[in-house]
Write a structure and sequence with these properties.
The protein is an alpha/beta fold. It contains eleven helices and 15 strands. The chain folds into two domains: 238 residues, Aspartate Aminotransferase, domain 2 (3-Layer(aba) Sandwich), CATH 3.40.640.10; 66 residues, no CATH class. Helix 2 runs antiparallel to helix 8 and helix 9 runs parallel beside helix 11. The longest helix has 16 residues. The model has no long low-confidence stretch (mean pLDDT 97).
Length: 376
């Protein structure tokens, strides 16, 4: 058997990681400014995280959700405190797409309606309803194309109002900051008006914080910059620092019903231990504040580099739109300068480093980035 070949791969194998650095099979060190799609939140191989995993694995890796699991309650209590949503309810699953699937399903259950409003350039996952709410026809199979989702331009509140007025909308789903779409930030005033419009109409507002949450924007959730409280929040990526996990934070206005949602692996003992350890480190090392401070520094320094058309972002979620396509630049960064970055579309580089990135490491990245642009 061979692998199903759906990933274009760089010819490098990463076998080790420490903090904001990774190492390939030959021992070459790389500065990690991508964190494996924003997954590595507290840094590679953090000792507190590794100890929590090892301790839990030595006792119990998994048992089903048919019995009590006190780790789930500990995680819910800690996440509520750290995020500012201690009055919300927590449903634990395995991935971001699964989080959005459950959020959309819950919204439809609650409203009795089936249509969803999403936004241009949105990315919400690759499964069923989540991929239907993703603005990329290339990854929407015929079986997913069910006419449930209407896309409107990001920031166009009048278009949202016009669709809601038709009376069949269950939910509006929006990313706190669009990631795959190129680090596009919804205007704070737009988010506040969106919250007001959906609340007045009885439409569920879902904030997809899968990439932009867990401190990445310099707030625990990116929507907190706008001072709003959505009905449902979805998270994954940085929640467990690489252990597969996702979650849905659900307003107290929703009443759970036995059997309404379910999962086999979601909220398992090892995943909960990992997620609790992540929150411990975020609190103790002030990583949300660090993301805000180091991110602001990076954003300011990037603006003066020739060849950059625009810099967008908040905290350590940064998009660098170049004047030219970035494919060759990213290759030079990896193979010549030993820096991992991401991309969005043809011309935009994405930076999603671990939240522990220091100013010295930011300066090192900037020096290597300038050298890669200049071809030296």
């Amino acid at each position: 058997m061979k692998l199903f070949d759906v990933y274009p791969l760089y010819d490098v194998e990463i076998v080790k990681g420490v903090g904001c650095n990774t190492y390939d099979a030959d021992g070459q060190e790389y500065l990690d400014l991508y964190g494996g799609h924003a997954v590595i939140s507290i840094g590679h191989s953090h000792p507190h995280y590794l100890k929590a995993l090892a301790d839990q694995a030595s006792r119990l890796v998994f048992y089903s959700n048919s019995v009590q699991n006190s780790l789930q309650h500990r995680l819910a209590e800690k996440l509520g405190k750290v995020s500012g949503y201690d009055d919300y309810q927590l449903f634990l699953i395995n991935s971001g797409a699964e989080a959005n699937e459950n959020a959309l399903k819950l919204a439809s259950f609650a409203t009795g309606k089936r249509r969803v409003i999403a936004f241009g350039k949105a990315f919400h996952g690759r499964t069923s309803a989540a991929v239907e709410a993703t603005d990329n026809p290339k990854i929407v199979a015929p079986i997913n194309d069910n006419g449930h989702v209407t896309f409107v331009p990001l920031g166009d509140i009048e278009a949202v109002k016009a669709e809601i007025a038709k009376g069949d909308v269950a939910a509006v789903i929006i990313e706190g900051i669009q990631g795959v779409g190129g680090i596009r930030i919804p205007d704070d005033a737009f988010l506040r008006e969106l919250r007001s419009v959906t609340e007045e109409a009885g439409v569920v507002l879902i904030l997809d914080e899968i990439q932009s949450g867990y401190g990445r924007s310099g707030r625990f959730f990116a929507h907190q910059w706008a001072g709003i409280r959505p009905d449902i929040i979805t998270v994954a990526k940085g929640i467990a620092n690489g252990f597969p996990m996702g979650a849905v934070l659900i307003s107290p206005k929703f009443t759970p019903v036995y059997g309404q949602l379910g999962t086999t692996f979601g909220g398992n003992h090892l995943a909960c231990a990992a997620a609790i350890a992540v929150l411990d480190v975020i609190e103790e090392e002030r990583l949300v504040e660090n993301a805000d401070e180091v991110g602001a520094y990076l954003l300011e320094q990037l603006k003066g580099i020739p060849g950059i058309k625009e810099v967008r972002g908040r905290g350590l979620m940064i998009g660098i739109e170049m004047e030219e396509p970035v494919k060759e630049l990213r290759s030079r960064l990896i193979f010549d300068k030993h820096v991992f970055t991401g991309a969005s579309g043809t011309n935009t580089i994405r930076l999603l480093p671990p939240l522990c990135l220091t100013r010295a490491q930011a300066d090192e990245f900037l020096a290597r980035f300038r050298a890669a642009i200049e071809g030296r």
